Amino acid sequence: MAETSIRDRRASETRARIAEAALELFTTNGYDETTIDQIAGAAGVGRRTVFRHFATKEAMLFDHLSVRRDFALRRLQERPVSEPPLVSLHAVLRELCQQGYERRLLGQIRAVLAIEPRFATRELSSGVRAFEDSLVATLKQRLSESHSALEIQALTEMAEGWFLTAVRLYFKEGKRSLVEYFDDVVEFCTRSAGRDLASVIRPAGPRPGRGDRRPARPRR
Question: How far apart are the C-alpha atoms of 62 and 54, rounded to whole Å?
Fold first, then answer.
C-alpha cells in the first residue's frame, strides 16, 4: 500500500512537472511552435514519459483545470449528507475558485487562450460536460433517497453555470480573482431570481405521487 502511494505521488508530480513545463513553453514560444521534445527536455523526462501522461498538447494545456476538478469531486463527497445539495455545490465550487487553482497557472492558460481562442470552446464544452456528469453522479449516490434525479440535475447545472460564467469572465477580463467573479455571479443570479421571479414561480407544495390518480371523467 505504501509503495503504491509513493508511486502514485511520483506519477502525479511528474505529470504536473510536464504540464507546467508545457505551459511555460506555450506562453514563451507559442503553442504551435512548441514541440514534444522541447516539453520533454524542459520537464527532464523522455518523450515516452510525456506520452504516457498526455495524448496531446491540448491535454497539457488544460491539465491543471482537470486535476483540480478531481479535487472538487473529492470535496463534494466529504460534505455532510444532511446538507442541502445546492449548499454543498456552492461551497465546493467556491472553494475550487478560491483555493483550488494556482493563479500563476491560470494566468498562463489565459495567456495561451488569448492567442489560441479555439481551445477555449472545446474545453468549456467537453471538459465541463464531464465535470457536470461527475458532480451529478456524486450527488445521486449520496442523495438519491431524498432528492429526485431531476432536482439534482437542475441544481447541478445551475451551480455549474455560476462557476462556468466566472471562469469565462476571468479568462476574458482577468482584472480580479476567480473567486471574486464567482461571488458576484452567484449574488446577481440569486438576487435577481428571488426578486424578479417571485411572482411567477408556483408556490411550494405537495406534488402528486405515483399512486395519485386524476378523478375519473363522468360518463355521458
Answer: 11
Biggest alpha carbon distance in the chain? 86
CA distance 113 to 23: 11
- Mind listing the pLDDT tens digit for each residue in 63-80? 887 778 888 899 999 999
Residues 17-54 have pLDDT tens digits of 999 999 999 999 999 999 999 999 999 999 999 999 99
Overall CATH class of domain 11-56: mainly alpha
Say how far apart CA 67 and CA 204 lie, in whole Å: 39
Closest CA to 85 of 162, 156, 134, 166: 156
What residue type is assigned to position 16 of the chain? A
- Dihedral sign for Cα 127, 4, 9, 92, please: positive
CA distance 117 to 94: 25
pTM of this structure: 0.69
**Cα dihedral across residues 176, 89, 15, 172: positive or negative:** negative
Per CATH, domain 62-196 is 1.10.357.10: yes
CA-based nearest residue to 155, from 87, 73, 68: 87
Where are the domains positioned within the chain? 11-56, 62-196
Sign of CA dihedral 208, 211, 215, 220: positive
